[in-house]
UniProtKB/TrEMBL annotation:
Bilayer-crossing regions: none
Highest classification ranks of the organism: Bacteria, Pseudomonadati, Pseudomonadota, Gammaproteobacteria, Candidatus Kentrum
Annotated signal sequence range: none
Domain Endonuclease GajA/Old nuclease/RecF-like AAA: start-end pairs: 279-444
Domain of life according to the entry: Bacteria
UniProt protein name: AAA domain-containing protein, putative AbiEii toxin, Type IV TA system
InterPro entries: AAA_GajA/Old/RecF-like, Bact_Antivir_Def_Nuclease, P-loop_NTPase
Species of provenance: Candidatus Kentrum sp. LFY
Length: 514
């Protein structure tokens, strides 16, 4: 799928091709790189979740009940052997499916992350956000409605047609190439409604599958990963301290009757202290949940908090091997995850220390969440599509995990930045992982070019963009990629400027000596 993003926040134009396995985004600060990958993540999250609900009987029944009466009028006018084109009603139902599943979720995630849509209108061009998704013969255009100022489906192009054919006896729906034929005997309207909706949902499910292009699941590792982990640690510490506190009066206190009076009427409490503490804990947790946290960061918190280590977490899967390589070659020690306390610990090689990653070096605290994600989440049980619907398309490749990561080089020495890029190459080549990166690292960029030269990364799976500023907002300019690597239109100018500055300073110094 190709995604085009226009006039979203500071971005005037950004386009990416999700068929690629490695996406690298570079550019100066504050030009919209994080906006770009966040919108892509939210789009994919909404698509994945929409795909996974289509097979439920409740969902299908609800869709059948909402069919317009017009389609029944067309059916009743048919004689045996007659056929009617209902492509317009079919298209309207696909639009409704988009609105009720994908678009509803995408609106919510944009609202949670950025607020009202006015907050992400491009203030430089003055234009409202527009997004286009193109895959196969289908295209979906999303824009802002004039009334209500919410995101809506502005256009839909589909390559399939659908027809109703009246027959003497009902038969299963035919899916012939791009044409769908729904059969009806002129009597059993309940059967017809079910068949028509299943045909629509079948097509819609394949649309989503084509859009996702073999992506099984997605994960987002934000910038400042260690700081985000510290928020979780602090919340766990508060809860533990509050649960074990003896500062509040206990049930044997002489003021017990007064404490009971402060609690809700009509309830008898054997231990009001526990009840008070539980109320405080629940209040604290509800406040944490209601914090204004972006959807990607909230997903990051949730996935960390839901990790449940098992005996297979150190298996021979390629991802586990790569995680061990990162521990050995970069971290210089092992990262463990405690399933009971939900904490990460680091043991330096050759010692028996067990340090909370909060108390380790900035490199360890920043990189440990990546190791934990790879070991316990990315290598976890494979999510599966639960539609249970027939698939018209064959020849699917194995599904892949897509990991978004902002500035993976943070707190790493250049030597370790290069080693980390090698680990990313291994994830792509050996573990069916797709990677979407933003970076300010010339070393990571140069190592990637060397990996392409060494043919350790296939040039055909790499896509790179540099975000540059314009009067209408930032534009993501594609960087040429060939067997020699990626054209450098980001770092080289500064390198040359610094070199020329140094030569000029040396010449001045020599002139002063003379």
């Amino acid at each position: 799928m190709k995604i085009q993003i226009h006039d979203f926040g500071p971005i005037h134009h950004f386009e990416c091709d999700l068929a690629k396995d490695l996406h690298l985004i570079v550019g100066e600060n504050n030009v919209g790189k994080s906006y770009g990958i966040t919108v892509v993540y939210l789009l994919l999250k909404a698509l994945v979740e929409s795909r996974d609900i289509l097979g439920s009987a409740e969902f299908l029944h609800g869709r059948a009940m909402q069919l317009p009466e017009e389609i029944f009028d067309r059916v009743s006018a048919l004689n045996v052997g007659d056929e009617a084109d209902v492509g317009d009603i079919f298209r309207e139902e696909i639009v409704r499916l988009l609105k009720d599943t994908f678009l509803k979720r995408f609106r919510d995630y944009i609202g949670e992350t950025y607020g009202p849509i006015d907050h992400v209108t491009n203030k430089f061009s003055g234009e409202s956000p527009r997004i286009r998704l193109a895959f196969g013969s289908e295209e979906i255009d999303i824009g802002v409605a004039e009334v209500g100022k919410v995101l809506e489906v502005k256009g839909l192009t589909i390559g399939s047609s659908i027809a109703l054919r009246c027959v003497a006896e009902n038969r299963p729906t035919d899916y012939e190439a791009d044409n769908i034929v729904v059969y009806h005997d002129g009597r059993d309207y309940e059967h017809f409604k079910a068949a028509f909706i299943i045909a629509c949902v079948h097509f819609f499910g394949n649309m989503l599958k084509d859009a996702l292009g073999g992506i099984r699941d997605i994960h987002y590792l934000p910038a400042l990963r260690s700081a985000a982990y510290q928020v979780l640690s602090a919340s766990r510490g508060f809860r533990a301290a509050l649960s074990g506190s003896r500062a509040l009066p206990n049930a044997d206190d002489k003021n017990k009757r007064e404490d009971e009076w402060l609690l809700p009427d009509g309830e008898l409490f054997k231990n009001p202290t526990v009840k008070i503490q539980d109320q405080l804990i629940n209040t604290f947790e509800s406040q944490i949940e209601s914090l204004d946290i972006s959807t990607p960061l909230n997903d990051y918190f949730r996935e960390l908090s839901e990790i449940k280590p098992d005996k297979n977490s150190q298996g021979n899967d390629p991802i586990h091997r790569i995680a061990k390589d990162i521990e050995r070659d970069i971290l210089g020690g092992n990262v463990q995850f405690d399933g009971e306390t939900q904490q990460m610990f680091y043991t330096p090689r050759g010692t028996d220390l067990r340090l909370d990653v909060d108390g380790a070096s900035s490199m360890v605290s920043e990189l440990s969440p990546l190791v934990v994600f790879l070991r316990y989440i990315v290598a976890g049980p494979r999510a599966t599509t639960r539609t249970g619907l027939p698939d018209m398309r064959k020849g699917d490749s194995s599904p892949k995990t897509l990991v978004f990561m902002e500035e993976p080089e943070a707190h790493l020495h250049p030597v370790n930045q290069a080693r980390l890029m090698s680990a990313f190459a291994a994830l792509i080549f050996a573990a069916d992982v797709k990677i979407f990166l933003t970076s300010h690292s010339n070393y990571l960029f140069t190592k990637l070019n060397n990996l392409i030269l060494a043919e350790e990364i296939d040039v055909d799976v790499v896509e790179a963009h540099v975000f540059k500023w314009s009067k209408a907002g930032s534009k993501a300019l594609p960087l040429a990629v060939d067997r020699l690597g990626i054209d450098d239109e980001n770092f080289i100018d500064l390198a040359e400027a610094l070199y020329e500055e140094k030569i000029d300073l040396i010449e001045r110094m020599n002139a002063d000596v003379r």
